[in-house]
Every structure is written in C-alpha cells, then in structure tokens.
Design goal:
This protein is an all-alpha fold. Helix content is about 65%, strand content about 0%. It has four helices and no strands. α3 packs across α4. The termini are far apart. The relative contact order is 0.23.
C-alpha cells in the first residue's frame, strides 16, 4: 500500500505542531513519529516497508493526522 506524499510532506513541514500535540502524554516521542514519516517519504510512501513497530506508530499517529483537516 502506498500513501500520498504531498499530504505527508505537508504534515512534516507545516503541521509538526500537530504531531507534538498527538504524542503528548502517550509515552511516544515526536521524533519517533517524525522518523517514521520521513522513512515513508524516503521510500515513496510504501507502507509495506515498515517494521511492525513503525506500522504501529503509523497507524496510531500518522494515519489519523493525515485523515483530518489541518488545524
């Protein structure tokens, strides 16, 4: 499965504050989520290349943020 790169790039460059907000109080670090998103950008959005932990991070944080409208 592949995801659109433009919204992902937008999330990283213009909406990173939303990542900080999403991870607050969860025990995850924002840089972990940013790292997974960067990995996806580097690999042309191919979600099938993610490890199990990266997939969990993607499912929990990145996918919901990509689905909602920017703040």
């Amino acid at each position: 499965m592949k995801i659109e790169l433009k919204p992902l790039r937008n999330l990283l460059t213009r909406r990173s504050h939303e990542i900080d907000k999403a991870v607050a109080g969860t025990g995850y670090l924002a840089k972990t989520v940013i790292g997974v998103a960067t990995f996806l950008l580097d690999n042309e959005g191919d979600v099938d290349l993610l490890t199990a932990k990266q997939q969990a991070t993607f499912d929990r944080f990145i996918q919901p943020l990509l689905s909602k409208k920017p703040e």
